[in-house]
Amino acid sequence: MIEDKDWLWGKFADNKDAVAVIAGSREVSYGELTALIDGYFEQLQAQVPAQSITAIVSDYSPEAIALFFALVRLEAIIVPMTLTTDDELHQKVGESQADFKLSFDDALDLQIEAVAKAENDKRELIIALRKQNANGLILFSSGTTGKPKAMLHNLDNLIDAHFGKRSKSTRILVFLMFDHIGGLNTLFGTFAVGGTLIIPNSRDPAHIGELIEKHGIRALPASPTFLNLMIINGVHETSDLSSLKLISYGTETMPEALLQRLRTIFPRTKLLQTFGTSETGIAKTQSLSSDSTLMKITDPDYEHKIVDGELWLRSKTQISGYLNEGGDKFSDDGWFKTGDLVETANDGYLKIIGRKTEMINVGGEKVLPGEIETALLELDEVLDCTVYAKPNPIMGQAVAADVVMREKASNREAKKIIRDACRDKLAAFKLPSIVRVVDATQVGARMKKVRRLANEG
Question: Domains of the chain by range and CATH?
Fold first, then answer.
């Protein structure tokens, strides 16, 4: 671990006149951002003790970013929270053992609220982090019971992973959210090179296209689901996207048919598959090519191995542990079981083929939704699709598909088109037995497919 953040503050000073953040019509320079950080730091010092667990209730904004880095200076343990209902907020504040909750009122004035809390049996993780005089970061992901898992990171390790990057003038859109490991990785990576972070007002495809054209954005990190929504909405036809030099994709499996569509639309743009988890951080990766779903992990801070087809990771940036759950997702020697199923290829390349939890069991035969979705997206008649399991009294589960058709069709007509076209591509048990025509597939707030659970009936 690098002993202090002088290298990062040095980047701010070296680029004080350059634009750090663009949000709507606002352009905030590194110098202005530093002034905001200084102001918040002074305010926090008077009310928030160093090393406190402090929740920030906000999505990206210049103020939220400045507050985040003011808390870094305070050596706090930071808990970003975005898109949270009152009940979820109360639960996450409790699960994180937060001492303070920070938010902004309508006038963007900082509100500081002390939080009453009860101790829990994972407090030793917090104590151990504080003994290192390290900044902390608590992120959440869904547990197997639906309870959010509170994951404790050494934040210094996550920031210092970007140390040594050369400065360059680049504009990057932050797509993933303020409380997502990928979104924070974009933030740290942008500031580490003295680049400009573009904050969207919404994650509407048309709006993103307008921002790319207006600001000459060079890098777009996004999910495959969102990239397909851009295609379906014709964003490449209504906005000039020629400034894009890099589209990186991750968070879910990329259907090969979708990647080929993207390659056709963006022939001069590099398409890069990224990989990371909330538990281990974001790894440096290399795609075999822009039209290949094969990738390799090239990060010297990462180890990986394949166990029964599942990718296991061990990294210098992985979490210290869960504050509210056991560590069964980690092996005794520190390997994280990602839940991602992979196939191996030559020269260390891997192909992510799906999630263990999404596997469909058709009478003992295993089916991965991604394979079926690729076959469906190869059809000219299908614009988008989501494949999932439905209960079946004879086979246990059946393959179901929600499809967005190019032309109007009934469920029966769509099913016949799909089964006839895919009969030579897919084994009989993989052919969708249930097809539902929809206007749009279900997409979560984080722009990933929402697959229907098999037990929904």
Answer: 6-159 (3.40.50.980), 359-456 (3.30.300.30)
